[in-house]
Amino acid sequence: MSEESLAGSGEREETKKTKRIPVSPVFRSLNTMAMKQPEEAALPFGIHREPVEYDWATAVRFDIIKNMSEISVIIPCYNVRTYINQCLDSIVNQTFSDIEIIIVDDGATDGSGKIADDYAERDSRIRVIHKENGGLSSARNAGMNIASSPYLMFLDGDDYVDERFCEIPYRLITENNADIVCFEFERVPSGIKSGFTEKPRMFSNDEVLVLLSGWKISDSACNKIYRREMFDTIRFPEGYVYEDMGTAYRLFEAAERIYITDQVLYYYRDTPGSISKNIDTRTKSDVRVMQEKKFAALLGRFVQDREVFRSPYVLNYAFEYLVTREPGTNRETEQYADAIVRRLSGLRKTLSPDKQRLFWLYLHCRPLFHLLCRAKKYR
Question: Taking the complete model, does pTM exceed 0.85, yes or no?
Answer without folding.
Answer: no
